[in-house]
Amino acid sequence: MSRLHPAVGVTAVLTLAFLYLPMLAVAVFSVNETRYGMSWGGFTWKWYQSLFNPALSPDPKLTETIQAAFVTTMALAVASTLVATVLGTLLAIALERYPWTRRARALLDNLLYLPVVTPDIILAAALVVAFSVLRQVSSLFELGLPAMVIGHVTFQIAFVALVVQSRLKSLGADLDEAARDLYASYGYFVRRVLLPLLAPGIVAGAMLAFTLSLDDFVISFFTAGPDSQTLPLIIYGSVRRGVTPQIHALSTLIFLATVILVLLSERLTRRSA
């Protein structure tokens, strides 16, 4: 096997540095004693501590806002992930196990990938238009947490379905035939055979959906109400007024949580393959 040119390795290192050095800078300033400016004033954990204790914060109102946004973000992520996981799993099973014609299967596969490749701003604008119409039917579509859950579910379903579908393809259709040969009902087969085997893929898809909801800004920005601010929205508003070490600390924690969830999801996906 021929060795790669050293320039390839250098390019890879520079690319990774370009991606992660900004986040490293944010992490460094999150432990900087100096509140304003770019000068280094010493190492401290007080900005992280102030996120959990308003009494330790130089701006208690901001800390209380962050804590309220954290509760909203977690509620939104958990609710949307649960709904998207159920619907995405059912969609994957239907796509993979139903005897579709070739044209119908190709059409459905393209529709499944559409939310993945559609820009968030387009999806968010479409949701605003749809909600403005549906608002005439039900108050559920008023801007706020319920509308945000629906908005997040619309793009999470595709990601869950794709992950679960990949797991289904690795299992093959032999299990279905073996269950029929043993006179198992389809409900029994799904409960006792299919779902346990799909569990790693379902969990991986759910973790990916949770991560996407946790980090989402565009759809949340378009569907949020005055009392349903999420952490990305708080960070955006704070950046416009001026970045403080508290915001650096909050951004670092969100980034670490995202990295952990993505790594766990990747590990589960590889294990299920």
TrEMBL record:
Coiled coil: none annotated. It is found in: Cell membrane. PROSITE patterns: ABC_TM1 (PS50928). One of its GO terms (cellular component) is plasma membrane. It comes from the Bacteria. The chain crosses the membrane at residues 7-31, 66-95, 107-131, 143-164, 193-214, 247-264. Residues 70-265 form the ABC transmembrane type-1 domain. GO terms for biological process: transmembrane transport. Gene3D superfamilies: MetI-like. Its main location: membrane. It is a multi-pass membrane protein. Keywords: Cell membrane, Membrane, Transmembrane, Transmembrane helix, Transport. Belongs to the binding-protein-dependent transport system permease family. CysTW subfamily. This is Inner membrane ABC transporter permease protein YdcV. The lineage of its organism: Bacteria, Thermotogati, Deinococcota, Deinococci, Thermales. The gene is ydcV_2.
